[in-house]
Design goal:
This protein is an alpha+beta fold. It is about 40% helix and about 20% strand. The longest helix has about 40 residues, at about 25-65. The model has no long low-confidence stretch (mean pLDDT about 95).
């Protein structure tokens, strides 16, 4: 969430930056300014009213002691009137503050200056391309046919048990899933990330803290009886560990990693691009999260990008790194790099990771702060990245490593799978 100070210090600059994300922010900021001015005026009137009330209340005892009973009774009525007025002002203050908050949360995060202009994925900037393509058999099969041929993923059984987008992994397919999760976690912990195992149900405050609510409410599975949400990513529970926390500068950087199943409704998704593992309602993902000092958060982002790249490269897949344009970025992000691997059977790029710096946007929602060297409380910066999401990694591994004998397993995964080929 942006701060009022960010919006009011330079309104024209705020409008310009938000326009890069395709948002006409001028009318919203104008309403925010109006509400903020009204809130301050009510607060001033309330403070004065309370001061008069307290002053009058102190006088009542003195008047009674002086035998001025009638004047004391008049003062009591004045205090009662002031209390009623204070209650009205307090209610109005709460109402205006709530509307002010509702307007602020409509605005996305400011994009960083290096974010490219653009509206769609076609406008994203390729910053790195590694083309280590495989020599495949004639007429290579897409992963959904390979899954059926080797009996490692059963999409039809998932439909029977739950519905489309909930596959069942079997035999070597299940073992490959577990191997990837363990490999990714080991890579992350070796890089200094502390592993945690969070809940996969979160409350509304957690969803708001990381920006999924109210922006992505329709994409989340909601357990209405308890008002819990199934996590769309481990980013939500892990980052919310630091909700309402005040860190010390010496605590930075905070680095955490977690594996969770992820749940996304993906409403409106259909067609060939969502076939097989390309887009699921439930999938496995390993996440990395950092809480960083504002002065070093972009250095932390570069380190996270390099770390994710090292994992993708170790799998031997063709990949590219994109810097997302303003129109293709998430609501909460200030700068995002996407990783895509190339599916040689489908002849298309598949996104497998997003690595983002949110600057203070999430921290403001979370009330995640730190004390600087002057003991002054400041907002921290938060970052997160997929490290990695499994479905499209599995799709690319199956398709790009298929041979006449079977599907070869990348060398780094063999100690985790216990086999070097799926037959």
């Amino acid at each position: 969430m942006l701060t009022i100070k960010q919006l009011r210090d330079d309104k024209a600059e705020a409008v310009r930056r938000l326009a890069k994300k395709g948002v006409d922010a001028e009318p919203i900021i104008a309403r925010i300014e109006e509400l903020d001015d009204r809130r301050k005026a009510i607060q001033l009137e309330l403070d004065n009213c309370l001061a008069e009330q307290n002053k009058a209340a102190k006088q009542i005892g003195a008047l009674m002691g002086q035998g001025k009973r009638d004047e004391a009774e008049d003062m009591k009525r004045f205090v009662a009137d002031m209390k009623a007025k204070s209650a009205e002002l307090d209610a109005e203050h709460q109402s205006v503050s709530a509307e002010l908050q509702s307007q602020i949360v409509l605005l996305p995060n400011f994009p960083a200056e290096i974010v490219p202009e653009g509206k769609t994925a076609e406008d994203n900037l390729v910053v790195k391309l590694v083309e280590n393509y495989s020599q495949l058999p004639e007429n290579p099969l897409p992963h959904w046919e390979l899954a059926k041929k080797y009996d490692i993923i059963d999409f039809d059984l998932g439909v029977k048990l739950t519905g489309a987008g909930f596959p069942v992994y079997k035999g070597q397919g299940a073992r490959l899933q577990r191997a990837l999760i363990n490999y990714f976690l080991d890579c992350n912990t070796r890089a200094g990330y502390q592993e945690v195992e969070p809940p996969v149900l979160v409350n509304e405050a957690s969803g708001f803290g990381t920006g999924q609510l109210p922006d992505k409410e329709g994409q989340m599975y909601h357990a209405q009886l308890d008002n819990f949400y199934l996590v769309p990513t481990a980013e939500v529970p892990v980052t919310n560990i630091f909700r309402d926390v005040i860190l010390d500068e010496k605590d930075f950087p905070v680095k955490m990693t977690a594996y969770t199943p992820c749940f996304r409704r993906e409403a409106g998704s259909y067609g060939k691009d969502v076939r097989g593992l390309n887009r699921l309602h439930q999938f496995d993902k390993v996440e990395i999260v950092q809480v960083a000092h504002p002065d070093s958060s972009y250095e932390a982002l570069d380190g996270m990008v390099a770390h994710v790249e090292s994992i993708v490269a170790s799998l031997g897949l063709p990949y590219r790194i994109l810097r997302l344009c303003g129109g293709d970025m998430s609501f909460t992000s200030a700068l995002t790099y996407d990783f895509e691997v190339y599916s040689e059977a489908q002849k298309r790029w598949l996104e497998v990771s997003s690595v983002s710096n949110f600057e203070s946007f999430q921290a403001n929602r979370l009330k995640l702060r730190y004390k600087d060297s002057n003991k002054k409380t400041q907002l921290a910066h938060t970052l997160n990245g997929s490290s990695l999401a499994l479905p499209r990694i599995v799709a690319a591994l199956l398709e790009n490593n298929q041979t006449e004998e079977g599907i070869r397993i990348p060398e780094v995964l063999i100690p985790y799978t216990g086999f070097d080929i799926i037959k």
